Amino acid sequence: MGILAANIVAFGQPMTAYMFPGAFAVVHSETEDWMWVAQFVLIDNKMRGLFSLLFGAGMYLFLEKAWARQQGAWLQIQRLFWLGLFGLFHYFFIWRGDILFLYACAGMAALLFVGLSRRKQLVLGLFGYLGGALLYGGFLGFLPVIADTDFGKRPAFAQMADELEADKQEALAEGELETGLISSGNYGEWVQYNFSAHTEELPFYLFMFWFETLPLMMIGMAAYRYGLFDGGIEAGRLRKWGWSLLLAGTALTVPVALWAKDGGLTYYGTLAAMAGWSKIPCGLAIFGLVALLALWGQRASGSLAERISAAGRVAFTNYLGTSVLMLFVFHGWAGGLFGKLGRGELYLVVIVTWAVMLIWSKPWLERYRFGPLEWLWRCLTYRQIFPLKR
Q1: Domain range for residue 24?
Q2: Among the residues of the chain, which ranges form H helices?
Q3: pLDDT at residue 299 in the model
């Protein structure tokens, strides 16, 4: 559910608008600028971080069950192979913001660290995440100084400033082209463009997130082995650390968001804020969130909790199913709303889609053992047909 809140702008507007409000095909109002700030503080990077951490925990859980049946890591490799194929299909045919291919590749690498002790997994994950945060900060954090200030007008940096401006204009032009292709309703032409223009971006995409995703997967493995998700950590301690980390991470994110807004939410200002300076604060918030959600999940009861739990048990179907649903909402051959909704209106689409997730997931699982795509993934992994209906 949180992933959709993070991704909705890139579903309904050009991909560049995910970080840069100036890429919206409609006017981005002052109120919506503050919405950008709120999303940056509460949602951006944190939902993907949670997803990555939980994926690592799920990998280790899967391996434990495989080891209990005298099966090894090869089964997990098959599982990740099929996930990668799902991801590539998603990337080229449904939505270019796919994360599954990245997870398949990072998951393969994470298998190299499965045999380590939980302490070593945790330490390596934390240092890996910190190293990645410093790398991103050094790589992207200072670009606004060159692109948005008089510093870039100095002779020594003039060429770099020109190159940054050219890259920005290229990204905006690509967004306009993307808007035209999607709005025209010619699905085949859009897919063909994805293959021709974006295949070569996959290695760079992997690099950009590798030093975040792999460390978080390792931390997730360690957290599972320490008992984070099954009551192995005392509740009071979990609550204390959860709130402390979440509040600290959020408090440190707010100045970054306000700095970006005060600078006019420029292209390189938003890039630096989102991918450069916020990684360490986001990491603290992610660890706090997962602690509090793990604590709540062990005690949650009532109709809403049951429906959220059911939506989580069919998370793969909900993730890809949401992308398919967004095709019907935004593409020109269906709803035709791409590039026409502002940020506030896009959040209404999020709320409606959340309702769809919560409405269908529970009754489906009352009749069937797995979600549709969970079942297909399981059958492909084990190379046998499992019964679906209860």
Answers
A1: 2-382
A2: 2-12, 30-42, 46-68, 73-93, 100-110, 118-140, 143-148, 155-184, 187-198, 202-225, 235-262, 267-271, 279-299, 303-313, 315-330, 343-367, 372-382
A3: 84
Q: How far apart are CA 39 and CA 33, in angstroms?
A: 10
Q: Across the chain, what does the average pLDDT equal?
A: 95
How many other CB atoms sit within 10 Å of the CB of residue 338? 25
Residue 102 lies in a domain: yes
- Answer yes or no: are the C-beta atoms of 279 and 132 closer than 8 Å: yes
Q: What is the pTM of this model?
A: 0.94
* 389 DSSP β-pair partners: 368
CB 281 within 8 A of CB 249: yes
User: Distance between CA atoms of 130 and 122, rounded to whole angstroms?
Assistant: 12
Residue with tokens 């559910």: 1
Q: What pLDDT does residue 14 have? A: 96
Q: Check whether 87 has a pLDDT greater than 90.
A: yes
- Is 389 contained in some domain? no
Per-residue pLDDT at 100: 95
Contact 14, 179 (CB under 8 A): yes
List C-alpha distances in Å: 129 to 56, 80, 110, 374.
14, 22, 14, 29
* DSSP bridge partners of 368: 389
Q: Which residues are CB-neighbours of 142 under 8 A, at least 6 positions away? A: 272
d(CA 202, CA 189): 20
Quick check: is 307 in a domain? yes
SS3 72: coil
What is the residue-wise DSSP string for 355-370?
HHHHHHHHHHHHHBSS
pLDDT band at 209 (very low <50, low <70, confident <90, very high): confident
CA 47 – CA 239 distance, rounded (Å): 20
Can you read off the two tokens belonging to residue 45? 């990077």
The length of the chain, given as a count of residues: 390
Tell me how far apart the alpha carbons of residues 170 and 158 are, in angstroms, rounded to a whole number.
Answer: 18
Measured CA to CA, the distance from residue 158 to residue 281 in angstroms comes to 32
Domain count, the chain: 1
Helix (H, G, I), strand (E, B) or coil at 371: coil
Q: Is residue 388 part of a domain?
A: no
The model's pLDDT over 142-185, given as tens digits with 9 standing for 90+, comes to 999 999 988 888 888 889 999 999 999 999 999 999 999 999 99
Angle between helices 279-299 and 202-225 (to 10 degrees): 50
